[in-house]
Records
---
Amino acid sequence: DTGVSQDPRHKITKRGQNVTFRCDPISEHNRLYWYRQTLGQGPEFLTYFQNEAQLEKSRLLSDRFSAERPKGSFSTLEIQRTEQGDSAMYLCASSHDNEQFFGPGTRLTVL
Amino acid sequence: GIQVEQSPPDLILQEGANSTLRCNFSDSVNNLQWFHQNPWGQLINLFYIPSGTKQNGRLSATTVATERYSLLYISSSQTTDSGVYFCAGNSGYALNFGKGTSLLVTP
């Protein structure tokens, strides 16, 4: 049973650089979600895909953030012109129905 | 969005003790999950429990949907139970998380 995978697991970047994260959902899960978690807080919703369609975006997803799921399988999350406030754990989840399963996350540090 | 309140925020137990974690929701949810976050940040699914009661080994959970709360029971706690426990619920696509209960089980 292959769970949700994310790559890279850790990313250190300098302010102003662009970064891209990848998420591979559980096979045959048509729903995919991105969340962000900062220290001491619970995860916060960023965006949701059903197959390749992006159906919902949070107000947290500023115009520097873009997410894609071009073939309805894996997804990418890109952050342009990173800021120190973007430092967080970025979590991906997938589901077949209502129950969501999370990946190990990508921990981003912006220096 | 739905507000989720978890209590207590922190809990220290001696190995073998029992505990109850609570989660209150500001509005009705049609999906409710409990997670355990390990030290590496991975969220481990404990229960999917929009209503009713479920048990899995030393853990059990009860959700009273009409009163908008859920309880997680941990019995005979072990040091490996340490970590942060989150509940989350939604009425749409997005899960809304509480701030978690940080549990430390001491030998």
---
Amino acid sequence: DAGITQSPRYKITETGRQVTLMCHQTWSHSYMFWYRQDLGHGLRLIYYSAAADITDKGEVPDGYVVSRSKTENFPLTLESATRSQTSVYFCASSRDRNRGPRAYEQYFGPGTRLTVT
Amino acid sequence: TQLLEQSPQFLSIQEGENLTVYCNSSSVFSSLQWYRQEPGEGPVLLVTVVTGGEVKKLKRLTFQFGDARKDSSLHITAAQPGDTGLYLCAGGRTNNNDMRFGAGTRLTVKP
């Protein structure tokens, strides 16, 4: 039971480069989320997706692009990385909202630690 | 400003002590979740509270949802070093698909 996985776990890249973080879940959850976690800010939502081909901006979407062509995958791309995007990135998934308030429960991947030099 | 404010931000106590951490908002939530996160790992769900005034117990942890569904508290009885971690609250608002997290309370329990 793989659950939700992220790759790579660690990444160092240079300013201006494009980098893609991968997220894969095996539960067929409808919703998927990308967060960044920084000291003093907690978890901040970047983008989320309610289903394949449906994505929406969260609190801090600038500089990021997402896609969801398949239910199980939700890649996050930094088109031109900046030092301010150095962070730990978490992917999460949750069930269809039609399943009631407990559908808001999220299941997180192990995170990707990204450093932009 | 955070939609969900957690307090205290840091808490360091001795093993055996009791503690309470808080999660407050001016918004109404259809449900609130509490998560615990250890270093190098993703948050792990502890509990979901749904009904205003609801109290849920998970061994030595007691979670309460405010009557107006705007706030929540987590009380730990007789804390143990294994309780050390970052405690996060998160909420889903009615008619809103996104999720918001508080900044967390970092708890250290010393043996």
